[in-house]
Amino acid sequence: MEGARILFLAGALSTHAFVGYALVRGFTDADPRFGALLGLVPDADFLFPAAWGWPFVHRGLTHAPLFVAALVAGAYAIRRDRDLPLAVGLGVGSHVAVDSLSPMGIPWLFPLEASPSLGLPVHGPAATALLWAGAIGILAKLTTDLPSIR
Ligand SMILES: [Zn+2]
């Protein structure tokens, strides 16, 4: 894997993790580190062997809104409170929402493969800076125990 590709993936993954962290920190009482982990869950599909094929491919099953809904329902079934399902929805859902805008898109109509996409460069420098700024804004506005960033 060439250096540029590694840099691109590191930027995209750290952005998804930070956005998940900020959303879970800002809108739930769950551990925000869990939000960072949840923000990475959809890209676990990079670990699927290529031989498995659809839907176990990058931007397949784990990037479907139906997958997010199933995880939220599962979280609610495990712990019937607000914070865990909301954290799962925000962490995993934010990743899928960001990726949905990218040229590759997501399978909105899973199990169908083809879906429309806006084709925005959401992992480009400008969009990445915007996502980080939004996440920092959430942390600054919605958390009360971080006086150093106010
Ligand atoms: Zn992804």
Automatic annotation (TrEMBL):
Pfam families in the cross-refs: YdjM (PF04307)
UniProt entry keywords in alphabetical sequence: Membrane, Transmembrane, Transmembrane helix
TM annotation in the entry: 6-24, 60-78, 85-110, 122-140
Protein's UniProt keywords contain Nucleotide-binding: no
Superkingdom of this protein's organism: Archaea
Keyword Transmembrane helix found: yes
Name the record gives this protein: Membrane-bound metal-dependent hydrolase
UniProt source species: Halopiger xanaduensis (strain DSM 18323 / JCM 14033 / SH-6)
Lineage of producing organism: Archaea, Methanobacteriati, Methanobacteriota, Stenosarchaea group, Halobacteria
